[in-house]
Amino acid sequence: MKRLELPNTRTVSIEQFRGPTFETSANLSRIKGIHFPEPSQMRSRRVVSRSNARSTGKYPSWKMGRMMHWESIHELNAFRLLDCDPNVTSYCEQPCQIVYVLDGVERLHYPDIIVTTTAGKQLWEVKLRSNASEPEVLARTAFLSRALPRWGYEYQTVFDEDLAKQPRLSNANLLLRLGKRAVNDCEWEGVRRTLAEQGELLWSEATSDNYGAKGREILLSLVLRGILTIDMDSPISSATEFVPKNGSF
User: Fold this and answer.
1) In which residue ranges of the chain is CATH 3.40.1350.10 found?
2) Quick check: helix, strand or coil at residue 94?
3) 21-163 architecture in CATH?
4) Which of 5, 62, 178, 211 is at a distance of 20 to 30 A from 114, taking alpha carbons?
């Protein structure tokens, strides 16, 4: 089956692509189409407006080079984590409208985020764990998880508590605060020589200016760009070791 790739420049109506069908207790269920917004719209529906009753805002994405619109603190946390994941090449909020039939009823669904990684494309639904067990949500999640891979997408429900998990989120905030500046050739060579001579790169050495006045920024910049790695599930401390990714040096 031909895969639908994410279009960048136009709205797509996909009636010519037939989605998979699944037998339910009542009717055949299927995806009828996936529609993307015009370039001038950028999002499939509006997120930030003056009339919003709930908290919304804009996040300056380092990776995407633009303001990302969020409608919950959980989406904001997701943006920060995606910005720090070198396996993520791009992401976009409110990317599309999915038209599908479930139990004989036509429905619409707006995923929160589309994530493009080195392994493929994912559609994320950011949810409170307490809401994810609602019968309608469970049925939709089960159906889209089965159906969307045939359209070229993996469907994932991402929970609020996982996005807020510490110390990963604090580490991400530190990376974004100090690591956005690109490393120049001289700084790169300094890191390479230090690693060759000492055999390791430690946060304690960077904070002591043993890697230069901008040692912290240099190490974090290289992590942000996927050249060095750290354990994101452990707090960044004096003992944190920065390890080269395979083939980086």
Assistant:
1) 21-163
2) coil
3) 3-Layer(aba) Sandwich (3.40)
4) 178
